[in-house]
Amino acid sequence: MLPFGSVFRSAFFNMYAVAFTWELLSLGPKGYGDELLWGALRTLQISVFGYAFGFALGLLGAVGKLSGGPLLRGFLNFYTTVFRAVPELILILLLFYAGTDSFNGLLVTLGYEPINVNGLVAAVLVLGFVQGAYSTEVLRAAIQAVPTGQVEAAKAFGMSRMGAFRRIIMPAMMPNAVPGLANLWLNITKDSALISVVGFTELALATRQAAGVSKQYLLLYLIMQALYLTISITSIKLFGRLERNLRRGQPDLA
Amino acid sequence: MRWEWLPKYLPNLMYGLGITLQILVISVIVGFLLAIPIGLAQVNGSRFSKTVAGGFCSYIRGTPLLTQIWLLYYGIGSLFPLIPDMRENYMWLIRLDAYWYVLLAFTLSFAGYEAEIMRGAFLSVSKGELEAARAFGMNHRKVLRRVWLPSAVLKVLPTLAGDIISQLKSTPLIFTVPVMDVMSVTSKIRQDTYLTYEPLLFLAAIYLILTFFITRLFAYFESYIPVRR
Questions:
Q1: pLDDT tens string A211-245
Q2: Which residue on chain B is closest to A198 by alpha carbon?
Q3: How big is the CA angle at B182 (ends B179 and B183), to the nearest 5 degrees?
Q4: Does the pLDDT value for residue A109 go beyond 90?
Q5: How many other CB atoms are found less than 10 A from the CB of residue B113?
Q6: Cα B172 to Cα A142: distance, rounded to the nearest angstrom
Q7: What confidence score (pLDDT) does residue A8 get?
Q8: In this complex, which of B67, B77, B78 lies closest to A193 when CB atoms are compared?
Q9: Distance from CA of B135 to the nearest CA of A (A)
Q10: Could you read off the pLDDT of A45-102 as tens digits, one per residue?
Q11: Has the ipTM of the complex gone over 0.90?
Q12: Does A197 touch chain B (CB under 8 A)?
């Protein structure tokens, strides 16, 4: 005899489980869907701004490393070596506390009241400083891979150093830099989860809070990882397209 | 800067460092051994095993390690109490200890990253080498054991130092679950002494020294491996 009772019961519980999941992930006050999506948005936000800041630092750092004096080069070597050798989590903790502390110290010495530093700004700056060390190395290698003849030709045409950099070196080095920069972008979307340790509510911390309240740890963590995976896979596709676009007109290497 | 806490807490830091290094070494060795079949499955497997192995690598590389640790410890770990009689079982003690979850998470993470590199290494072994082995009458298993695997592993070795350093740099994440690694000890010191920077700076110095040490160790190994460029 078939165990009809248990089949019906499990079917009922499955329906119940689906309805429960749906409600748990719904938007609005009952579910956590909006909290998670908002967290994912915050993750993207600090990643994009941190990445842009890191890219700017990297560009300055790469140019400084290639054409700066010995003092500047020594300082930049120290920056890239130490920031790439010390774990990101420790750097984030150090920079977060040191950064907000010294900023408030500066305000007090200037005669202002100390303020609560905006978590978003602090997160972006911290991630950007860490990212900048890696960007410096990627961009330095990409600039060095530009054939010297092209740079000399630009000089022969009478371009200024800035003009040659903007017109010749930047477009020629970008295709070389894109794979490294794509890796750095994937790293920063994942490193942004570390910001949760200093209490900034992005995707990881939002999920952790939602899971702590609802006790649905497994389900919510799986959803969170699906969101991270979506960000990663979309980014990989977009960077592949960007590289093809930048490499148009260049001979196929592969 | 105040450092008078250091002698008192140094034994605890050394204990934490031991746990960190233990997790690093075991996860690197076991992870690398796992990476070989996963990488091979991506190159040489059936469609099913290619999809599974590729999906595993994308998952590991596409999500933060922090969330993988949390999923294992808080997510999977939350299922065990649902099993009846679990509390009376001796397994309960293992289930309680976050150490095993962290070890598993780090091992799988290293396996995922390294499998992707092994895939590239397997693909980059020259066709001629494999065909020569086939021409000598070796069967597939022998080709793999004598030619394909050794040359693939040799190709991976120069990048291995960097990957181990990346893995080392992820180890502070252990402190987000209850395991007394060197980072957890440091944050306990910070709570005890109300010092913000000094323990963290000391920890950063420890990691710098470890990174330097691993770099030198691998430079020494590599000088013994004949590589034709």
A1: 988 888 888 999 999 999 999 999 999 999 998 88
A2: B176
A3: 80
A4: no
A5: 19
A6: 31
A7: 53
A8: B67
A9: 28
A10: 999 999 999 999 999 999 999 988 899 999 999 999 999 999 999 999 998 888 888 8
A11: no
A12: yes
Confidence of residue B146 (pLDDT cuts 50, 70, 90): very high
Least CB-CB distance to A86: which of B63, B66, B204?
B204
Structure tokens at A76: 């930049």
Is A152's pLDDT higher than 50? yes
- Summarize the confidence of residues B201-226 as an average pLDDT: 89
Cβ count within 10 A of residue A1: 3
d(CA A27, CA A200): 22
Q: Is A254 on the interface with B (CB under 8 A)?
A: no
* Cβ atoms of B50 and B215 closer than 8 Å: no
Dist. CA B97–CA B117, nearest whole Å: 32
Stated length of chain A: 254
**pLDDT exceeds 70 at position A12:** no
Rounded distance, CA A165 to CA A170, Å? Answer: 6
- Note whether A117 and A103 are within 8 A (CB): yes
Residue recorded with tokens 């092209």: A150
Average pLDDT of chain A?
87
Cross-chain Cβ contact A221/B201 below 8 Å = no
| DSSP track, chain A | ---HHHHHHHHHHHHHHHHHHHHHT-SSSS-SHHHHHHHHHHHHHHHHHHHHHHHHHHHHHHHHHHHS-HHHHHHHHHHHHHHHHS-HHHHHHHHHHHHHHHHHHHHHHTTPPP----HHHHHHHHHHHHHHHHHHHHHHHHHHTS-HHHHHHHHHTT--HHHHIIIIIHHHHHHHHHHHHHHHHHHHHHHGGGGGGGT--SHHHHHHHHHHHH--HHHHHHHHHHHHHHHHHHHHHHHHHHHHHHTTTSPP--
Contact: A233, B62; criterion CB under 8 Å: yes
By Cβ distance, the residue of B67, B78, B207 closest to A90 is B207
**Residue B35 pLDDT grade (very low, low, confident, very high; cuts 50, 70, 90):** very high
SS (H, E, C) B154-194: HHHHHHHHHHHHHHHHHHHHHHHCCCCCHHHHHHHHHHHHC
Considering only alpha carbons, which residue of chain A is nearest residue B64?
A: A190
CB-count burial class (<10 Å; 0-12, 13-18, 19+) for B55: exposed
Residue A229 CB neighbour total at 10 angstroms:
15
Residue in the structure block whose two tokens are 């303020």: A115
